[in-house]
Write a structure and sequence with these properties.
This is Aldehyde dehydrogenase. The protein is built from 17 helices and 18 strands. By secondary structure, the protein is α/β, with parallel strands linked by helices. The chain has a seven-stranded mixed β-sheet with strand order 10-13-14-9-8-15-16, sandwiched between helices. It has a six-stranded mixed β-sheet with strand order 5-4-3-6-7-17, with helices on both faces. It has a three-stranded antiparallel β-sheet with strand order 1-2-18. Helix 2 packs antiparallel against helix 4 and helix 3 runs antiparallel to helix 6.
């Protein structure tokens, strides 16, 4: 469909009917996603095998189960997450209702990525649906088999009046971005993220940008190098290194580099054997364009620094797991996010030098620290900025639904996963409800203003450090009791009339 303006108009019309605000509708769509996953697992696995040669285990564990669990979590918590959130009230609002109501935004655009083409398309959609929005989903054209399956299944299992798929490349994406949406959610490169943000700015459309960057990994001499190496190798080389939060390079003191390299080699053989090209657990680069880009990074490195791998095969888009020791900041592999099975190691004096190096570059999507020392862990937590930090493991933080997932600075803006996804696609509307009675009490805030009124209201409303609050405790409590008594008993009791007349006469 190329008439995107009409498509969006139709979705906006549907949204205007209130259909998507119904909790029963939201549940039915979330149940549809669960059913979609349960009934079509093999087809999803096959599509990603075609696009990325992705191992079945990685597809099931990192894509299929993630989407299913996210939909189930939203189903189980929908009532609780959407209930009106009462907030604490100051004394002048003691008799009023004050709360936050979560409203859907309207029609939202979700632009998926090719490296996890099922998860990164459907997980944002889960939260958008749960929040009560209409959705336009644009899967990545770089993973066409999965994009086709996503479209076919969404049309079958979801409400087509509220959920639409748009396929295509740059031309179609550019046309889509010229339209007005109520939110744009984009996952992909920083360069395209800038294009999305620029297009959104035309309509003042809010954006969530899940981008990338070079995620550093510091290995401390105190850490167990065998365990550290295994966890680094898994996080770096799963999905053939095509993971936005994969450790992009290692920083370590020079004295531990030889042993760390030995342990990394050992872990690679344990995971992928002596010939990763014929290992079913190791995938392929998504296309020739990315293959050529990664090969260029390897070719730039001096051959004596490539201690593992370096082998490539353009016909099968295979690039062997590659480790580059004694890398330097001016090498090509340190100038851009690698997004492939290449791992440079740079040596630094200590953790302070590592922190200085990290802080001299753009803020990463993730940061990894391997150490047994709490003091070093705290240094990295408090002296660096990153989308997330994981201590003594890699990429596992992204699978915890209770943690927000998102970048900072160049690595993105906004966050999602679990409840954070629903919050992302909601407008948190502040609501104050007052009753129409007791208008006499409001005289004190109406003109004509007097110094006496001001003094009374200032004393009532002023806040200060907790040690000063006790001085106002008794008068505030007395005021609360008086108001409550008025509501319960009425206006005919002389002492109460006296108070009201006193306030009125002193204006």
């Amino acid at each position: 469909m190329d008439n995107y303006q009409q498509l969006i108009t139709d979705l906006r019309r549907t949204f205007g009917t209130g259909k998507t605000r119904s909790l029963s509708w939201r549940r039915s769509q979330l149940e549809g996603i669960v059913k979609m996953v349960d009934e079509n697992r093999d087809e999803i696995v096959a599509a990603m095998k075609e696009d990325l040669s992705k191992p079945k285990s990685e597809t099931i564990l990192m894509e299929v189960i993630q989407v299913r669990n996210d939909a189930i979590q939203h189903l189980n918590n929908l009532d609780k997450w959407l209930e009106r959130e009462k907030i604490s009230k100051s004394i002048e609002l003691i008799m009023d209702n004050v709360y936050i109501q979560r409203d859907p935004l309207g029609v939202v655009l979700i632009m998926g990525a090719w490296n996890y083409p099922f998860q990164l398309a459907l997980m944002p959609a889960v939260g958008a649906i749960a929040a009560g929005n209409c959705v336009v989903l644009k899967p990545s054209e770089v993973s066409p088999a999965t994009a086709f399956v996503v479209e076919k299944l969404c049309r079958k299992y979801l409400d087509n009046d509220t959920f639409q798929i748009v396929q295509g490349g740059v031309t179609e994406t550019t046309a889509l971005l010229s339209e007005r949406f109520d939110m744009i959610f984009y996952t992909g490169s920083t360069s395209v993220g800038r294009i999305v943000a620029t297009a959104a700015a035309k309509h003042l459309t809010p954006v969530i940008l899940e981008l990338g960057g070079k995620s550093p990994c510091y290995v401390c001499p105190s850490s167990d190098l065998n365990i550290s190496a295994r966890r680094i190798v898994w996080g770096r080389f799963c999905n053939t290194g095509q993971t936005c939060i994969a450790p992009d390079y290692i920083l370590c003191p020079s004295e531990i580099q030889p042993e760390l390299v030995r342990q990394l080699k050992k872990a690679l053989v344990a995971f992928f054997g002596d010939d990763p090209q014929h290992c079913e657990s190791f995938g392929r680069i998504v296309n020739k364009r990315n293959f050529d880009r990664i090969k260029r990074l390897i070719d730039d490195a001096p051959s004596d620094k490539i201690v593992v791998g370096g082998k490539t095969d353009v016909e099968s888009r295979f690039i062997a797991p590659t480790i580059i020791q004694n890398a330097t900041a001016d090498m090509l592999c340190m100038q851009e996010e690698i997004f492939g099975p290449v791992l440079p190691i740079l040596t630094v004096k200590d953790e302070d030098a590592a922190i200085d190096f990290i802080n001299s570059r753009e803020k990463p999507l993730a940061l990894y620290v391997f150490t047994k020392k709490s003091s070093i862990k705290e240094k990295f937590l408090n002296q660096t900025s990153s989308g997330s930090t994981c201590v003594n493991d890699t990429i596992m933080q992204a699978g915890i639904s209770g943690l927000p997932f998102g970048g900072v600075g160049e690595s993105g803006c906004g966050a999602y996963h679990g409840k954070f996804t629903l919050e992302t696609f909601c407008h948190r509307k502040g609501v104050l409800e007052k009753k129409q009675g007791m208008e006499k009490l409001n005289d004190i805030r109406y003109p004509p203003y007097t110094d006496k009124k001001l003094k009374f209201l200032e004393r009532l409303m002023a806040k200060g450090p907790s040690r000063r609050q006790f001085g106002l405790f008794l008068p505030i409590m007395l005021f609360s009791v008086i108001i409550g008594f008025i509501l319960k008993v009425g206006w005919q009791i002389p002492p109460l009339n006296y108070i009201l007349k006193f306030i009125s006469n002193k204006r």
